[in-house]
């Protein structure tokens, strides 16, 4: 069974220690990394590119209009498409947007992955969630990851949960020093199955130094056995059981024959 590890991380505009954040990412070793709050101002691309190198990951090199969201990938996946979308916000409010990448592994159709960072305003979060879902609605297999700035009772969370399943752990991610709230999450459409969660040993010192958020991640199954493969495996198991039963029967018969044969006195 092959899996694709998707992680989400709010890096707080690199106001913390970006080298600590890079060490955290390297320890998690994701195939796809959905980022929020990367530097987004003019001439910030070099800082983001440097962070990608420190993480040992690939970056498309573009994130203008994304509101500080972007996506890194490992060499284990192919990037079919990479886009960044701007979301409308009220005047003088922080820019918002979301990043979208279509990624593929050999022998499988691409999966759409979106990185989102929703507003501090509840009404704006709900409105942006609708825009995001309307934009992504054409993709049959979708992963959405990010900082929702709300918990499961929020309207935006409920909107995403209406068409996708929560696949990341319900472990609190904010604030990093003493996590109490689950703000950073990963959703996936029903066709994408999450493997049992794999814990990763992370440096507590790095987690606190890197950002005010902790990352979250999930391993998604990308090549579950087909019906033909399952049938072949079941047939092989049946043959194995038959052979084993016959072997046991022959062994028991031989043992019984040995017992019935008169032994020299």
Descriptive labels:
265 residues, single chain, Deoxyribonuclease I, Chain A, 2 domains, globular, five-stranded mixed beta sheet, alpha+beta, six-stranded mixed beta sheet, 6 helices
Structure overview:
There is one protein chain. The protein has 265 residues and is α+β, with helices and mostly antiparallel strands. It folds into 2 domains: 3-221, Endonuclease/exonuclease/phosphatase (Deoxyribonuclease I, Chain A, 4-Layer Sandwich); 225-265. 32% of the residues lie in helices and 24% in strands. It has 6 helices and 11 strands. The protein has helices spanning 18-28, 45-55, 122-136, 155-161, 204-210, 227-260; strands spanning 3-10, 32-36, 58-59, 70-73, 78-87, 96-104, 111-117, 142-147, 165-166, 184-188, 216-221. Helix 1 packs across helix 5 (204-210). It is globular, with a radius of gyration of 25 Å. Residues 261-265 have low confidence and may be disordered.
